Amino acid sequence: MDLFINDYNAGLIDAAEVPCLSLYQPTHRAFPDKQQDPIRFRNLLSKMEESLRREYPDQDIRSLIAPFERLAEDTDFWRMRTLDGLVVLAAPNFFRAYRFQRPVPELVVVADNFHIKPLVRMLQSADGYYVLSLDKHQIKLFEGNRDRLDEVKLPPEVPRTSAELQGDNDRERHLSKWKPSGAPGSVLYGKGTQSEIENADVARFFRALDHAILEQYSRPSGRPLLLAALPENQSIFRRLSRNPFLLDEEIDTNPNALSLEELRKRAWQAVEPHYLTRLAGLIEGFEAMRAHELGDADLERVARSTVAGRVGTLLIDAGRRIHGQLDAITGEITYNDQADPTAGGLLDDLAELVLKRGGQIVVVPTEQMPTDTGIAAIYRF
What we know:
Elements: H1 4-9, E1 20-26, H2 37-55, H3 61-72, H4 75-79, E2 85-91, E3 94-100, E4 107-111, H5 117-124, E5 129-134, E6 139-144, E7 149-151, H6 168-171, E8 175-178, E9 187-190, H7 194-221, E10 225-228, H8 231-240, E11 246-251, H9 260-291, E12 295-296, H10 299-307, E13 311-317, E14 324-326, E15 333-335, H11 346-356, E16 360-364, E17 375-379
Parallel strand pairs: 5-10, 10-11, 13-16
Antiparallel strand pairs: 1-2, 1-4, 2-3, 5-6, 6-7, 8-9, 12-17, 13-17, 14-15
Helix pairs in contact: 2-3, 5-11
């Protein structure tokens, strides 16, 4: 499964050729509801094909639709590891399917750009974290929030077992060959004890794992990482780790002995204080900056400041929706009486533009927002 934040940070989303196809579908985790998911997907695919033929009649429609059809026929995809939302983005020579832990609106958009505004809030929610479950031989990575914890399907860049970094050729790096006089073959003798060789293998595995998790998950997302492992493995991994997102708190037990729900509860118990401290710091920072006229909650002023690149941090009310669009050139706001499912909402427009201007977005629960306008901006200058 593809990781949206990595594609977004790499510029792949903005660099796609025309036409850009965006399919959003709420999905289900359990039977019998999940049996309807592939049927609903095919219905959305039919709408997408109709839009393509109407809006882009000169395009090779079949080549654009074919990857969607293969996904619709992939029974393993629909039977296993379904979460709460599915987003598929496609363009000429580009096809990505992303699963999300929160529901998404059901819609299809065919346009010159991908429709990604509904994803901004999910990516920037302040309660996200990762759990790394490991022993000396294998690992699992979980993505979580306050309500959910799900195992991540790891890409080839992330070693899942120590065996992936070993093998006969690797083992012989620790050994030398010696052929006694008159002997028919070589004899292997060690440069270290068996324990030393195994410890070196574990260290190499943990270093490679630490680097891969940092580059593939921690750095792109900025989310905290919690380690779940026995004390011995905790000690070894922490001594080798260079991941600044790794929390001091830990789950110091065999994670394989815990159910997924038990692991989620213990993980959130460890992560929640950091989550609350971060929110409190952001809110205090906003109030302090507002006292010096570097914090603002007025929607129209913040919109103009966003276009000018002034917004360094934007807090967004998780439960607030404002119908309208933002002109990314002038900063002017147009309000709508009714929601346009393809527009994503005014606050989502603002969030996307802040990210493109190099700022950060933090989605805050309604009860903790320091303003009643839906936003709280901290200016750079």
